[in-house]
Amino acid sequence: MPGILKAWIDQVVSPGHTFETSSEGTKPLHRIRKVVLLVASGGVYKEGDPRDTLSTAIENAFSFIDINDVSLAWADGQNSMYFSDFDQRKAFAIEAAQELAEEVAEIEVPY
């Protein structure tokens, strides 16, 4: 995980801001229900690949504050030295990101 992403997570998953703890456990202080992650990587990591520590870390961090819906649009294989189809992979990821954006736009937020 890039250090800047870890620092951002530390700012978001913050006691007193997005959650509080008590003897009963962790209580969210937000109404966020979904996190969308747009990821690019030089290599190709299939779902469940043990080298993919990023999605697991994101899912664990946000589940701690009761956000359990994490979606990824992954532009993998972006190292052009190893993957000649990196442009197609990028286009596929952009399409997936657009679909996720449409899904998020349709979510009704109860106020």
For the record, give the distance between the C-alpha atoms at the N and C termini, rounded to a whole number: 34 Å
How much β-strand is present in the residues? 15-25%
Please state the average pLDDT score: 89
Strand-pairing-aware structural class: alpha+beta
Strand order across the largest sheet: 1-2
| CATH fold group | Rossmann fold
Task: Please name the CATH architecture.
Answer: 3-Layer(aba) Sandwich
- CATH class (first level) name: Alpha Beta
What topology emerges from the helices and strands here?
Layout lengths: L2 H10 L6 E4 L2 E4 L5 E7 L12 H11 L5 E7 L10 H20 L6
Question: Could you characterize the architecture of this molecule?
Answer:
The chain has helices at 3-12, 53-63, 86-105; strands at residues 19-22, 25-28, 34-40, 69-75. It is an alpha+beta fold. Strand 1 and strand 2 form a beta hairpin. It is globular.
Brief rundown of the structure:
The protein is an alpha+beta fold and about 110 residues long.
Features:
3 helices; 20% strand; 111 residues; two-stranded antiparallel ribbon; two-stranded parallel sheet; globular; Rossmann fold; alpha+beta
